[in-house]
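Backbones bend. We report:
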Amino acid sequence: MELNSILGQNDDGKWVGHMWQQWNTQRNTWLEQKKELEKYVFATDTTTTTNSSLPWKNKTTLPKLAQIRDNLHSNYLSALFPNDKWLKWTAFTKNDASHKKAKVITSYMENKTRLGGFKQIASRLLYDYIDYGNAFAMPIFEKRYHTYKPEDSLVPSFIGPKAVRISPLDIVFNPMAVSFVGSPKIVRSVKTVGELKRLAQTVPEMAFWTKAIERREFINKHLGGFSTEDWAKADQLMVDGFGNLYDYYQSGFVEILEFYGDYHDQETGTLYVNKMITVVDRCMIVRNEDISTYDGSTPIYHVGWRLRPDNLWAMGPLDNLVGMQYRIDHLENLKADAMDLSVHPIYLVKGEVEEFQIYPGAQIMIDENGDVSELGKNLGPMMAADNQIESLKNDMELFAGAPREAMGVRSPGEKTALEVQTLNNAAGRIFQEKINTFETDLMEPLLNSMLEVARRNFDEMDVISTLDNDLGATEFMTITKNDIIARGVIRPIGARHFAQQAQDLQNLVGISSSPLWTLVAPHVSGKNLTKFIEDSTSIHGYEIFRPNVAIMEQQETQALMNQASEDLEVAASGPAEPTTMPAPTPGAPA
């Protein structure tokens, strides 16, 4: 009873722990499927997969799932970030649409995403998108300093918004809700006591962790006064990843559950809206605040690869390919066992036969009634197994939305360049739709939330570096809070711009090769067409395209040729004859 009273102190947050446990249990089937998929993706042989139950001696696995995963990730990432200009500011008012305002906001976000490692976070989110079919992220504002030794002064390393990935295994919500935005969410994390102490001491907004640390120290002081049996009786709550409650308190780690959304207090009948509640040890509330966003919404964003009806947990591109991977490994090892059998066949031995070995020129000693014969076998299906494996590999690429052309493998048949481009665009529509969904449903709201976090936490001023497109030089810009306050949205246009460029370039090549070009050529701007080609091909930094540069270079070349021609004419005319002066007369004045 004493132990129960100690653990039960400040248990007003138990409902958050129960809600986590309920929603986490509801997705057990989904978690088991993801564990099986992970085993196949990272398998080095079939002993760690469900193929281990097959009776084959060979245990080879053909890593087709891993190859599709890498193929999708590399192509998704290349489409999202085709060049450095993947951000665009879209204003809602005339004043906010000025060139200066757009340049300041885009330059600020480009600088913070580059220094804050946004591309690396996006890469990990893409892996979640592929592996789990779901990706989650939220923004934070980070202030990081380092000490300058000669003066022991603090120098800012990074001050600004950053994106944070949330593992799909560490977040739960109501899967039957109408939308992810409208569902309450609980995010789980685990920190050490030392990390919490550091946060409480260095970050003023995190002073609430002191309460959790004091509770942990109070419980640890009383741990030695109770037996293991006492803990077993009091242990009514299993903490994920720590076995039992006694092991949890001995580990030095603290489990943190953060609730976001609306909840109803049944005792008082009060409805609390847009709340952020932090619970430790699944029972103690250390923070209960309003969500700090401008509109009160939860700053956690989600995207799903293949949406399910009436279920917010989406399906991934690899989920329904596990069975095909199983089939490929089954056929590969079946074929390998059959080949081994053809090289090392099974022999039928009759009567008295001395022990023998098989090698060229071997002799087998048998008696009068003895006999040794090779058992008959049909190795015809071996060739069929090869064809089936190749067919399964091709189908898996198509089913995942990653056609083989994405890897640079050209489909059979003679085609013109225009036909190849047309077929690639048509075959990649699933791929393009999925990466557009990732860009619009996750990256766009995440970037705008990062900009909002920056506005709320902005200091007096900030100095950022940006690249001047006209001069090609790095320039430094001083930004204040008012500079990034505007009505509009940040739009990542990498994937959409990438697809549009490919389509536009294809259409332009088709028109220029047709008789219509003679009609439209007088009305085509050469300079603007050059800018379009430079942008479409992403050839920057070499100054290949400049207005009328070819004419100036031709003029320079012609001048050099004319000078060289004159030099040749002078050399061909021979050296000039020297002029001899008459000898001076003796005695005459010089």
